[in-house]
Amino acid sequence: MTNPEQNENFTTPTKAQPRRSQSEHQPASPITDNVQQLTKAEIRALVEGTKAYHRQRLRENQRRYRMRQRKLVADLEETNVQVQGEIKRMIQQRNSTAAGIFSKESVWAVALEYFRVFKSGLLAPEDSISDVLDSLQSSMAPDLDAGTVGGFKAFVNNWSVFTKSFQDVQLQLQSLKQISETLLVATTTTTITISALLGHRFIMHGSVSFHWDNTRNCVVGLISKIDMVSPMLQVFGNLEDVSRVFNGAGITPDGNVIANEIYSSDLGK
């Protein structure tokens, strides 16, 4: 016989309920619902619209790209013009600078050659040093201004007369100074012996100015000056006697032979 208390605690097993799928628990997506409600024509139109949108975006991107490319080309062309202009300016500047350097080096070269040729006056016959003189003459203008005379040959003749007028002529270069682009000035010391004054040795200071022509690339002016008065004044003590020495001597107090003088001066005799 069954105990009533046991019947109260006894529970009749319930039948297992079927398990619902996950999809049954989740609500349907609005997008999915909307798509399901669209017709094929509407879906096709939506797809075509999306494609058209992307095509429009692509065309817009291409348009912007072409604009950037055109701007880049324009900028490059402008830069190229500027670079070409700068190159032209630099070439002109280089040529101008090179011309200036060439002129400076040339006039300096002529000056150095001048002092090499005439460092002892002009003792040797001109024929024996014709090559040296021809080389120096090639740097001189045909119408060379040589102070009291004109032309290179007349200038050389003056040197010859000056050298024969004294003994042991020595010309020393002391300094060279570029005064301007076309003027180079040399300071000099000229030493001579005058036998008429018991072989007295005179040291005279002077200068030689080289005037350069940039267009012709040659020396157009060669002005030599020697202070012969100061050392003689120390010997004679007064200007009257000094002036008497130069009277009829054929050489000026600044050391230049008087034009057309072709014979030896009497100053050193």
SSE layout:
Elements: H1 4-9, H2 22-25, H3 30-37, H4 40-117, H5 130-137, E1 140-145, H6 152-165, E2 167-180, E3 183-194, E4 200-213, E5 218-226, H7 229-236, H8 239-246
Parallel strand pairs: 1-5
Antiparallel strand pairs: 2-3, 3-4, 4-5
H/E series, N to C? HHHHHEHEEEEHH
The strand order across the widest sheet is: 1-5-4-3-2
- The helix count comes to 8
In the CATH hierarchy, what is the class?
Alpha Beta
Mean pLDDT: 80
The CATH topology is given as: Nuclear Transport Factor 2, Chain: A
CATH architecture: Roll
Low-confidence stretches: none
Shape: rod-shaped
Domain module tally: 1
Protein name: Bzip transcription factor
Biased composition (Polar residues): 1-15, 24-33
Region (Disordered): 1-33
Characterization of the model:
With 269 residues, this protein is α+β, with helices and mostly antiparallel strands. The protein has a single domain (25-269), classed as Roll (Nuclear Transport Factor 2, Chain: A). It is built from eight helices and five strands; from the N terminus they run H-H-H-H-H-E-H-E-E-E-E-H-H. It has a five-stranded mixed β-sheet with strand order 1-5-4-3-2, with helices on both faces. The termini are far apart.
Task: Label this structure with key terms.
269 residues; alpha+beta; Nuclear Transport Factor 2, Chain: A; five-stranded mixed β-sheet; 5 strands; 20% strand; Bzip transcription factor
